[in-house]
Amino acid sequence: MEGMLKRKLVGEVEIREGAGEAFHDFFANKPHHIPNVKDHFIHACDLHEGDYGKPGSTIEWTYTVDGKKKKIKQILEVIDEENKTMKFNCIGGDLMEDYDDFIATFHVIPVSEGTCRVVWTFEYVKKRPGIGEPSGEMDSLIETALHIDEFHHSK
Question: pTM for this one?
Answer without folding.
Answer: 0.93
